[in-house]
Design a protein that fits this description.
There is one protein chain. The chain has helices at 5-14, 20-31, 36-43, 47-68, 70-96, 103-120. By secondary structure, the protein is mostly helical.
């Protein structure tokens, strides 16, 4: 079973909908990089039991993401915010290298960057 960073990412969003045991098994597998045998020892179950728990958990969180898409929306917002920050810094650079820099543009850029920081913190 190839480990998948996408599942680890989705686990952060939807882990609370899983049973405590499913979530812990998946966290040990995806986040702690433990083997099926190590996880089986930790929980006193078989490797097959661990694999089944992981597969059920994967199915649940993949289905939930397909239906509600919170993780995809989060990524899109993060990418959009990063793009806005890059554009604001480009405007600041262009303004500062202008023959006659505008104090108003500088204030607006500062305000945009402050808002971006507020959103992302």
């Amino acid at each position: 079973m190839a480990k998948n960073l996408e599942i680890s990412f989705l686990l952060d969003f939807y882990g609370d909908v899983l049973t405590e045991r499913q979530r812990e098994v998946m966290e040990q597998y995806y986040n702690d990089d433990l083997s099926l045998a190590e996880i089986a020892d930790n929980f006193g179950i078989t490797r097959q039991g661990v694999r089944d728990s992981i597969k059920r958990g994967e199915g649940i969180i993949l289905d939930l993401e397909q239906k509600v898409g919170f993780a995809a929306r989060y990524r899109a917002v993060q990418q959009g915010v990063a793009q806005l920050e890059s554009l604001a810094r480009s405007i600041r650079f262009a303004n500062s290298n202008s023959y006659s820099p505008s104090a108003e543009i500088e204030r607006d850029v500062d305000q945009m960057l402050e808002e971006i920081r507020r959103i992302t913190d």
